[in-house]
Amino acid sequence: MVAVSLVGVMIAVVLDLYCIHYCLDDLNRREIVIGGDRRWWTAVIVLGGPLGQAAYWLYGRGEY
Description:
- By secondary structure, the chain is mostly helical.
- The protein is built from 3 helices and no strands.
- The chain has one domain (2-60).
- The termini are far apart.
């Protein structure tokens, strides 16, 4: 039971790190970011967890 829980936690951490990397890469490539400041969005993505990443995808992405 403990091994199954440990595997589940490891999968969740890896997925979260992948999503953080993907969001930060997208943030870096965009010319226009809604809300202005990239430092603010970086903090939201990294510290906000899945909700911060979803907020960036829904509200922060501008045009390429």
